[in-house]
Write a structure and sequence with these properties.
The protein is of the alpha+beta class. 28% of the residues lie in helices and 26% in strands. It has a five-stranded antiparallel sheet with strand order 4-5-10-6-7. A five-stranded mixed sheet has the order 14-13-12-11-15. 46% of the residues are buried.
């Protein structure tokens, strides 16, 4: 079965009845199938207009589940979302950015998912809906392992919601890859700093592709609180602050290289953020 409903209730009904798989941009589904034809039932939610778009609300920013990376890159969002917008411009190439969705990136739950670190530093939650009702989960609770999430078979992600950040908070995202586009991250880091009168009042740091799931670096964050936002601030972070990371050896890099690169990228991202810069692929 392939169905493409135009409203959420219809999609939830199909999920409850059939146990189908949700798709939207399908940029992960087809490559993972390889030469094999797709098997099973699919509910395509890309035609549900209520699930698309990013908007600033009274106390939160709401990004619909089928919002594409191109949508996010063009959205008028607070400066704290600049890291997410940089990541959006580095997901695959233009064709992928035009089709791939934020929910697809999160539900695929790759350890190298570019969207996860920038959303972690925003304290983002995911909104999940089913015929049983709606629930919200913190993003770090939703992604439970490599390719594993807490999404129930009858649920669909409807939105990503982040508390409205302070207008003084700014962010940066750096990604290390073998080339500029169409590359799986070797290491990626996202940093947000709330700087008031030259002093760091809040700091948030996340590292991806160096653990089974991307992680916030709480010890490193605490080192930055109260510091002056100046060039060289990144040197306050040391290797021991990243001890909880558990990078692997694979065809893209060794674990030692990843650990060293994570520290270097993080120091660069902190310096960039302190200077109001937003990052990119290195």
């Amino acid at each position: 079965m392939y169905a493409r409903p135009s409203d959420l209730d219809a999609a939830l009904g199909l999920l409850a009845e059939s146990g189908a798989r949700i798709i939207a941009g399908a940029t992960d589904i087809y490559p993972s199938a390889g030469d094999r034809p797709l098997q099973g039932d699919y509910v395509d939610v890309s035609n549900i207009s209520a699930l698309r778009g990013a908007r600033v609300e009274v106390d939160a920013v709401r990004i619909g589940a089928t919002t594409t990376w191109s949508d996010i890159a063009r959205a008028d969002l607070p400066p704290a979302f600049d890291a997410l917008k940089v990541a959006a411009r580095d997901v695959g190439a233009a064709q992928i950015q035009n089709r791939g969705t934020i929910a697809g990136n999160l539900c695929n739950a790759s350890p190298a998912a570019d969207g996860v670190p920038p959303l972690l530093i925003l304290d983002a939650e995911v909104e999940l809906a089913s015929r049983r009702g709606t629930r919200c989960l913190a993003l770090d609770a939703f992604i439970s392992g490599a390719r594993k999430t807490q999404l129930a078979p009858d649920e669909v992600m409807t939105a990503v919601v982040a508390p409205l950040p302070a207008p003084t908070m700014r962010s940066a995202f750096f990604k290390l890859g073998a080339r500029r586009y169409l590359v799986i991250s070797i290491v990626m880091v996202a940093v947000a700093l709330d700087v008031v009168e030259g002093v760091v009042r809040d700091a948030r740091i996340a590292v991806g592709a160096c653990s089974v799931v991307a992680e916030r670096m709480r010890e490193a964050e605490r080192r930055l609180i109260g510091a002056s936002a100046r060039p060289g601030l990144g040197r306050a972070i040391e290797a021991q602050d990243l001890a909880r990371l558990s990078p692997i050896d694979d065809v893209r890099a060794t674990s030692d290289y990843r650990r060293d690169a994570a520290l270097t990228l993080l120091q660069r991202a902190i310096d960039a953020c302190a200077l109001g810069q937003t990052g990119g692929v290195v």
